[in-house]
Amino acid sequence: MATVGRTETTDIAVHWKEEEYIQPPTTFVRQANLVDPAIVDRFREENFPDCFQEYAEMLAWDRTWDTVLDTSHPPFWKWFVGGRLNASYNCVDRHLARNKNKAALIFVPEAETEPTCTLTYQELFVRVNEVAAVLRDFCGLKSGDRVTIHMPMIPELPITMLACARLGVVHSVVFGGFSGEAAGLRAADSDSRVMIYADAYYRNGKLIDHKASADIAVRTAANEGLKVEKVLVWRRRDGQDLSNTPMVPGRDYYMEELLKGFRRVRVDPVSVDAEHPLFLMYTSGSTGKPKGCQHGTGGYLAYVTGTSKYYQDIHPEDVYWCMADIGWITGHSYIVYGPLSLGATTVLYEGVPTYPDAGRPWRIAEQLDVNIFHTSPTAIRMLRKAGPDEPAKYNYHFKHMTTVGEPIEPETWRWYHEVVGKREAAIVDTWWQTETGGFLITTKPAIDPMKAGSAGPAALGIFPVIFDEDGREIPAGAGRAGNLGIRNPWPSIMQTIWKDDERFVRQYYAKFCRDPKSTDWRDWPYFAADGAMLAADNYYRILGRVDDVINVAGHRLGTKEIESACLTVPQVAEAAVVPVVDEIKGRMPAIYASLKPGVTDGRQVSEQIVAAVETMIGKIARPKGVHIVPDLPKTRSGKIMRRILAAISNRMETGDVTTLANPEIVEQIRKQVQGEGPVELQEGPEDLKRFGEQE
Ligand code: WTA
């Protein structure tokens, strides 16, 4: 195999070129919420955990907390213990006195011919109350019950979430693009007697029949032993049936019709303990089964409110647009809870960023006068590829922009800064996770300079650390990558994995815990499962996952989940899923499968595999390639060597294969995937080199 040079573009970690500092514009600094550097002192380690009261004080509490942080049962940290509040009250009711006529939500439908729809805080209040009444009085839901919401990006999604929160009902929102199967499995895991759907939505110019997924979800849940009693269906368009899937009598109900019985009903917000769970968000981990990350009310809401104010720099007069989907944690924290808790105006866009063309986001920004814009590197790459000169054609001005969800290459960052931001905006690159609830690494936009490709320093009150494989700390500026950990608890850390405390401890704390008997938080660093490097200036550069999670377009997919889907195809004997670099989406899954004896039609099986993945998970998991191979490389103990397959898919060095049980298969697969001729090998990004290490 010929090794000729290496490609620079995919190579973030190894050739780490220090980027220049870029100072935030003075126009931004002059108006920013967080300008006084004294805040850094207030959030110093000796002031932990009391410093976080500053965030809690941004909320309205029914009863103030007695204890800021209770560490008596590690790592089940309890924040603002004794405090009582309601999240829906904080996001809606408390703004009425002064801002009832202000826009809370602006909904932008995908079709440009359909007008935008604005909901004031008063209108939001009325709708949240009426929906809460349906949930309480028609469905019989009460505080602590779970509800699975499988909905697209329409205003009824945040309305439904806030209605749940009003009752203390725990919502579990499943990303609308996930399949009915995926929603059904999550509903079963959380014991949701009620599921909430929309009949249809628009995506890339097409009308999607979403109600069809409801039937599949209910059937899937039944196979798992859960009877879903009621399915509530929002109509995408009042009074019109956009779905061809029939309603099941006695099970399915149109919200529109139910609401007729609850006009003008007001539902008192249920005061809950700070530690009462607010929601579950299922995310992929290292097993086939997604885990329900459980977030509490007080700590979570305090942290997302504080970070929305300080890092998103939201002011009352701003128009804030986060172009994520509410079905992911970014949408929960930074479309719904954070901005609404601050009484801001938050924009909801139904569709695809490039629909009908790559000028769409900039037209929306111009029309609504959006001044804070929040998106992912994948969306930036897509918009840049489809319309590099589009932003200049529109008269919008962002004071602040965010990039989140995946590492951003300095070159992409620069286009974002110069072309999208017109050099007028402060940019934050925020690192965090479903588990962390809010930003943990980011620049303070008016205080710290930006550095392309680096997320930045730790957020206030957060004390990260980089460990080598033996748990030794790698100091700043060492030029070595390691495992990112967080030394201290913070208010929006997930409380546990739903119904699985043991897995929670094992997954996030077992690796670095210094003393399982200790009740000192210092002995319990959180393991983030990301690789990172720390520069001499204390800026973190995130390299990507070190476990078997693939970050596709900023969305987390578990390789094991995709493998399970492949194995539902009867002809497949074994399957392995690995990440492969993609120019736009960052990473995509590639599938390697071997077939059962006697099966010859590999092409047909490939198609079945793709169909199975789309059915079991959703189109976002569609693989970049399916390779039907004679056998998978294995160790003598039978473990599939996914790292070697990842190396082949990404044209990286496969390393020593002589100790395998079947070393000859490696060259055979390599030729099949890369072709017979000499191949230019690449160094490859750090996460791919370490892929499968934590298995
Ligand atoms: C990745 C999304 C680089 C990381 C909020 C993490 C990032 C995973 C960044 C969590 C960033 C998130 N730079 N990588 N600014 N933000 N990630 O749970 O690998 O969907 O572990 O939460 O996204 O994805 P999740």
Nutshell version of this structure?
The protein has 695 residues and is an alpha/beta fold. It is built from 21 helices and 32 strands. Helix 11 packs across helix 12.
Largest sheet: 8 strands, mixed
Given helix and strand content, the structural type is alpha/beta
Q: Which ions, cofactors or small ligands are bound in this entry?
A: 5'-O-[(S)-ethoxy(hydroxy)phosphoryl]adenosine
Beta-strand level of the residues, as a percent range?
Answer: 15-25%
Shape: globular
Low-confidence stretches: 1-14
Helical residue percent?
Answer: 25-40%
Provide mean pLDDT, rounded.
95
The first-to-last residue Cα distance is: 29 Å
**Count, helices:** 21
Biggest β-sheet: strands ordered side by side in the sheet: 13-12-9-7-8-15-16-25
Radius of gyration: 25 Å
Number of strands: 32
Description:
The chain is of the alpha/beta class. Helix content is 28%, strand content 22%. An eight-stranded mixed beta sheet has the order 13-12-9-7-8-15-16-25, sandwiched between helices. Mean pLDDT is 95; it is low at 1-14. The site of 5'-O-[(S)-ethoxy(hydroxy)phosphoryl]adenosine has 21 residues, from helix 12, strand 21 and strand 27.
